[in-house]
Amino acid sequence: MGGIEFLKGHGTQNDFVILPDPAARLDLTPARVAALCDRRRGLGADGVLRVVRSAALGERSAGEWFMDYRNADGSVAEMCGNGVRVFARYLTEAGLAGTGEFTIGTRAGDRPLVVHPDRSVTVHMGPATITGSSVTTVGEAAFSGVAVDVGNPHLVSFVDDDVDVLDLEKQPAYDGEYFPEGVNLEFVNAVDEGVLRMRVHERGVGETRSCGTGTVAVVAAALHLAGTDTGSSVVRVPGGQVEVTVAPGESMLTGPAEIVARGELDESWWARL
Ligand SMILES: N[C@@H](CCC[C@H](N)C(=O)O)C(=O)O
Q1: Any catalytic annotation for residue 211?
Q2: What is the CATH number of domain 4-122+257-272?
């Protein structure tokens, strides 16, 4: 029996299973996503990137390809900043993107991007909108934060202590009325002029080693707290670093994207899930 093609990739160690599915034939249930992402009973990943033709999903996108992104727990999310770079790397290496500049459709809207010769990818991430403020609690410690919409929801908290001391193993508490769809929680230290350090607890995943939309939210929040809406910063995460530029109505994210493996899923395993 034949298998189902997969690839594995990561962007600053935010890792993904890529499922090429141009005609949208796969029945990608939450149970299948959760099993694929499980690091013991599956391949292991923070999320799944299903590669589908926009037309096959009836999506009105300027991009030929649509990123159907799922979190490791099987939930659907609007956007993934590291995932979209890995998705672009896959399309380029598979010969499915004509040039190094193209657009990918996502649930948060179209994302034009550039794949650079040095293997990094720059993505137009759309607006990073400050939506208010809220509070999160890690253990006994409460942190106020800036709420930012980058197509998906974020709460960015600047903390006085080293972010490394935070225990992000458990889900930090947050205001479920303020964030009825859940929220990605970023904890940040300012390192230097134009350099920030971040750890993240992602909605639908848990702590990850990076979150691209999170890095954009962090820079937007830092600028907001400094009384401006335009600027750039390097954001260091446990899995590497990215560069972010924010301006009114637009933000840009540049970072690495790698494909590390390819193979076939066992079809009888898939069918039993
Ligand atoms: N890791 C991603 C974000 C993935 C979605 C997020 N967990 C959510 O539910 O909004 C990124 O790199 O942006």
Answers
A1: yes
A2: 3.10.310.10
Tokens found for residue 1: 């029996």
CA end-to-end span of the chain: 17
Widest distance between CA atoms in the chain: 60
Report if pTM > 0.90: yes
Using the mean position of ligand 1's atoms as its centre, give its distance from the Cα of residue 23 in Å: 25
Distance of CA 100 to the CA centre of its chain: 21
Q: Which of 60, 72, 11, 30 is nearest to 243 (CA)?
A: 11
CA of 94 to the centre of ligand 1 (A): 24
Clarify whether 80 is annotated catalytic.
yes
Q: Which residues line ligand 1 (CB under 6 A)?
A: 14, 47, 71, 77, 80-83, 152, 184, 202-205, 211-214
For residue 124, the number of C-alpha atoms closer than 13 Å in the C-beta half-sphere is: 15
The interface pTM score, or ipTM, of the predicted complex is 0.99
Give residue limits of the domains in the chain.
4-122+257-272, 129-248
Task: Give whole-number Cα distances, 43 to 91, 125, 266, 272, in Å.
Answer: 21, 29, 11, 16
Q: For residue 227, say whether it is annotated as part of any ligand binding site.
A: no
Q: What is the pLDDT of residues 109-134, one digit of tens each?
A: 999 999 999 989 999 999 999 999 99
> Are the folds of 4-122+257-272 and 129-248 the same?
yes
| Class of CATH domain 129-248 | alpha beta
